[in-house]
Design brief:
About 35% of the residues lie in helices and about 15% in strands. With about 140 residues, the chain is an alpha/beta fold. It has one domain: 3-Layer(aba) Sandwich (Rossmann fold), CATH 3.40.50.1980. Strands 1, 2, 3, 4, 5, 6 and 7 form a 7-stranded mixed sheet that branches. Strand 1 and strand 2 form a beta hairpin.
Length: about 140
């Protein structure tokens, strides 16, 4: 089974995607990472490239931000005129995650990060054990 495509946003402005260990975690969780390369630093991305790949799932986990801060920063993405056309937005598969605790630092919580990815990529197979603490669905 080929999993859904995902774009993981590690910084909103300028737009950057997650690299380092995150692409490997996406693969382990059964997803197809559209941006970022395993073992390479997080990389800048143009909004046109982001829109052009049209990910099935978008996970926003800015470096150093918890969910509350990420939610406060989301208008910078969501107010862009192209945002509503994204497949992930139309299908309500945009998620905010605790980047500071789970995505931006290597450590023992990497297993929780893998679980969060499995929950957002395959909600039909994994109960939302980390919803509300590690991730939430973007309501905007």
């Amino acid at each position: 089974m080929i999993g859904p495509t995902i774009a993981i946003v590690e910084w909103i402005d300028p737009l950057m995607t997650a690299g380092n260990w995150t692409p490997e975690l996406v693969a382990m969780a059964g997803g197809r990472n559209l941006f970022g390369e395993a073992g390479k630093p997080s990389a800048p991305l143009t909004f046109n490239d982001f829109i052009g790949k049209d990910a099935e799932v978008v996970l926003v986990a800015p470096c150093g931000f918890d969910i509350e801060r990420t939610r406060a920063e989301m208008p910078a993405l969501a107010r862009r005129p192209e945002w509503p056309r994204l497949r992930a937005v139309r299908s309500h598969r945009v998620y905010l995650a605790d980047g500071s605790a789970l995505f931006n630092r290597p450590g023992p919580r990497v297993v929780e990060t893998l679980e969060v990815l499995a929950e957002v990529l395959h909600p039909e197979s994994f109960p939302p054990a980390h919803q509300g603490k590690g991730w939430e669905r973007f309501a905007g």
